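Checklist before submission:
- one chain only
- standard amino acids only
- sequence pasted in full

Submission:
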Amino acid sequence: MAITDWPEGERPREKLLQKGPASLSDAELLAIFLRTGVTGKSAVDLARELRGRYDSLSRLFAAELDDFCTVSGIGPAKYVQLQAVWELARRALGEQAQEREVLGSPQAVRDYLRLSLGGRPYEVFAIVLLDAQNRLLAMDELFRGTLTQTSVYPREVVKLALRHNAASVILAHNHPSGVAEPSQADRQLTQHLREALSLVDVRVLDHFVVTASRVCSFAESGYL
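Returned file contents:
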């Protein structure tokens, strides 16, 4: 049955206008984005199939083009549009962090990091650079690694902090495995980076381990 044949209150667009976007399921929101279905499938059916391929929305948005397009009826144009939506969301959260003291809006920082790093299929190490008022200067992805490890060089981290004249930094990396608990290697790396940055009077405020569903803080866990 086509969506136009559904009761008006059950159609995703009408439902959003009447009840707001939070009332819609993931599939309904994706259906609005997809706009149309294919022969034998409504936009909602197609959205459910697409959503079912991934265990989180973060992984859906982080999907590679070839994998994304294996769903019948989904092509490069939809992939490009979805990536544009994802990037707009990241930039919006980045603006929130820039407009206020980062330490005064920790949830915005967590959301920003989860959107940026959480769904990646490989490990990424990033650094959030802050000024003396703890406002966001920039975020840079310094290193990319395999599914299990990445090489992080303290010298490069120090150079980046000096280039932006940062007063402090927040470190972040993702765990593609989905386990947010910091490893012993993560703790040792954090200590090495703290020592290197302290030589140029840059503080490490926190180190976040990011997964698609969780963000673990070193400071809150007592590791920093």
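Reviewer check: The longest strand covers residues 136-144.
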